[in-house]
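ok trying again, last paste got cut off:
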Amino acid sequence: MSMSSKRVEIVHCEGTRDERRLTVEAHIQPEADFFAVDTPVYEGDVVEIPDPRGGTDRRSVAAVKVNDFGSESMRHIEAVWGKPPAVRGTDVQLLGIEGLHQAVIEAASELFADGHYSQAIFEAFKALEVRVRTQSGLDLYGRPAPAGEHVGLFGPGGESAAHRMLKLYVAGHPLEFGLSAAAVPHVEYSFATGDRVDVMFENHLPDRTVVEVEVEGEQQLCIGIHQAIKYRSLAAADAGFPLLTSRVRSVVVAYTVDYPKARELAERYDIPLLEADRETVLAGAR
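nice, full thing came through this time. structure:
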């Protein structure tokens, strides 16, 4: 069978934000496709070929062989077909920020567009905190605000705004708490037991860092340390690591950590206590 030349479309990183399409000439064979030697085709790409019966024949590239030798007519790329790619029922819809509340767009759209997703989330939550405070008439700790003031968030029994602000600040500023810029935060990460840690970071060394957040007070800080001990074990089991592993780290973040009883407890169980600057964290809520 002689090879026939057709115009085909190469789809790179299909279904992701980096998806790219390129139309090129190719020689079609049942087991492979042959391209010019400088064609940007790679393993994992999808090649869409016009079907003479109608529609499009979609093929997945399992291997690429670059033959860059001999005469010009002999140089080519051979793309070997693999398993057929999954059929796409609808076009992939990439998430954006455009449909969110105007306050969120104003606070976070530029950060989101530049790929600073953690900081965008933090700024969006700060904007929502301010709006809810304005609407609710509660102060930063969930108490009724003085007449004429509009500050605060959750009422009795809920998470205080001060705690939530600190939690989101930690999630958005990993470098300030000894993590790398590549660390990916998960706020309110849930374990199989139903327990939820304030923040868990992944994609850094160690593999996981769980963060328990406490606002203030020695009793609350000691409770937070006990929680951090528990979350360290849960995070290890959740990832399939041994319980006594260096791949999981647990810390407690609070506005004040200088309490003798809390420090002694934290040192005994290797739970670092980290301080956050209250004014910096709460600045966006005023």
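cool. Residues 147-158 have pLDDT under 50 and may be disordered. Residues 254 and 275 are 5 Å apart (CA to CA).
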